[in-house]
Amino acid sequence: MRAYVLERYGGPEGARLADVAAPEPGPREILVDVRAAGLNPVDFKFRQGMLRPIYRPPLPVVLGNELAGAVMAVGSGVTRFEVGDRVFARLGKERGGAFAERACVAEEHAAPMPRDLDFATAAAVPLAGLTALQALRDELGVGPGRKVLISGGAGGVGGFAIQIAKWLGAHVTTTASPRGAALVRALGADAVIDYTAGGLSHTTERFDAGFDLIGGTTLDEMFGVMKPGTKIVSVAALPEPQTALRDLGGRRLLAALFWMASFGIRARARRANVRYRYLFMHPSGAELAELGGLIEQGKLRVVVDRTFPFDRIAEALAYLEGGRAKGKVVVTM
Ligand SMILES: NC(=O)c1ccc[n+]([C@@H]2O[C@H](COP(=O)([O-])OP(=O)(O)OC[C@H]3O[C@@H](n4cnc5c(N)ncnc54)[C@H](OP(=O)(O)O)[C@@H]3O)[C@@H](O)[C@H]2O)c1
Fold first, then answer.
1. Is-cis flag, bond preceding 60, omega within 30?
2. What crossing angle do the helices spanning 263-272 and 216-223 adopt, rounded to 10°?
3. Whose CA is closest to atom 39 on ligand 1?
4. Which CATH number applies to 128-278: 3.40.50.720, 3.40.640.10, 3.20.20.450, 3.40.50.300?
5. What is the CA radius of gyration of the chain?
6. pTM of the full predicted structure?
7. DSSP per residue over 269-317, as a string?
8. Could you give the residue range(s) of every CATH 3.40.50.720 domain in the chain?
C-alpha cells in the first residue's frame, strides 16, 4: 500500500510517499480502508523531531494521526464494528499511521461516522474536535454564562473550540487576525480581539476560563486578563510537571525536565493567581461519537480550509506548517 513514511527527523525531505506492507489488525483492532486523513501541527512537529523527548518510535514510521474510512476487516475480539461500517478516529499516539491507504485502529478509538458527512469532512474532526471538547468541558468545566477566552480561534482546533464553548453556554471571546475575523464570528464568537493590532494588551475585559492555542507571548498576555482564581489550559505551550508525570508514563526525569522548562510559565501563573495546566488530548471513540451526535444535530460545523489529493501530501503539510490555515487541512486517498 502507499503510505507517507518518515525516514529521518528534520525537514520535509525526511518523509516520502512509499510502498509499504499493509498493517494487520490485532484482536481488538479494525483495519480501515482510509478515504481521507486530517493534518495537524503535531504531524510536522513530529517530523521535525520536536516530540523526541516524549515519543521516539523506531524509524521508518508511517505518519498521520486521524482518519475517516470504511472498515475492511475486524480483529477476533471486536464487538462494535463490522466490515463496511464508515468510521472516523484519532489513532493511538504510539501507533499513528493515518497517512496510508490502510490503517489499523483500536476499536475503542473509533466511532461511527456522522450521517451525511463525506469522508474528507469527517477526517477533519477527531484530533481537533476531541482537543476542544476535553479542554473546555473536562479540564475547564466551562458552563452557562462563563466568559471564556480562546486564543487562536481561526485554526483547526479553534473552529471547534468556539462552537463547543457556545454549545456549553459560554460567552466566547477569541483572538484572530482580520483574515480570520469573519470566520470566527460566523462560528459564534461573541467578541473578537485582533491580535495584529495590540491584541490582549488593550482589553479591559476579565475572563473566567482561558483556552490557549498559541503559547508564547499570547499565553503571557492571557494571564493578565484572567479573573483571580481562574484557570488557563494550554495545548500549545509547555507541560507542567503534574501533567507530564500523569500523561507521559510516569517518567520522573521527564517530569523534572518539564518542571524546569515550564518554570517561567508557572511563576507567571502564580503572580496572576491563575492555575495553569497543559493538556495532552487523548483518543476516545466514545467522545468522538458525542461530537458525531452534535454534527448530526447541526450544532457543530466542520470547517475544512483545503483538501489535497494524497500524492500532494507534502504540499498539504507545508501549507499547514505556514500557520495560516482557516479550519482544517485534509488529504483524500
Ligand atoms: N496538546 C495537544 O494535545 C494538542 C492537540 C491539538 C493541537 N495542539 C496544538 O495546538 C496548536 C493549534 O493547533 P491548530 O491545529 O489549531 O493550528 P493551526 O490550524 O495551524 O492554526 C492556524 C491558525 O492560527 C492563527 N494564528 C496564528 N498565530 C496567531 C496568534 N498569534 N494569535 C491568534 N491566532 C493566530 C492563524 O490565523 P491568521 O492566519 O489569521 O494569523 C491560523 O488561522 C498547535 O500548536 C498544535 O500543535 C496540541
1. yes
2. 20
3. 324
4. 3.40.50.720
5. 19
6. 0.98
7. HHHHT-EEEE------HHHHHHHHHHHHTTS----EEEEEEGGGHHHHH
8. 128-278
Give the angle subtended at the CA of 130 by the CAs of 240 and 98, to the nearest 5°: 100
Q: Which of 124, 123, 117, 22 is nearest to 73 (CA)?
A: 22
The class (CATH top level) of 2-125+302-332 is alpha beta
Q: Where on the phi/psi map is residue 133: left (φ > 0), alpha (ψ -120 to 50), or beta?
A: alpha
- Residue ranges matching CATH 3.90.180.10 in the chain: 2-125+302-332
Note the pLDDT tens digit of each residue in 21-73.
999 999 999 999 999 999 999 999 999 999 998 888 999 999 999 999 999 99
How does DSSP classify residue 200? G
By most ligand atoms within 8 Å of CB, the mutation choice from 40, 213, 281, 328 for ligand 1 is: 213
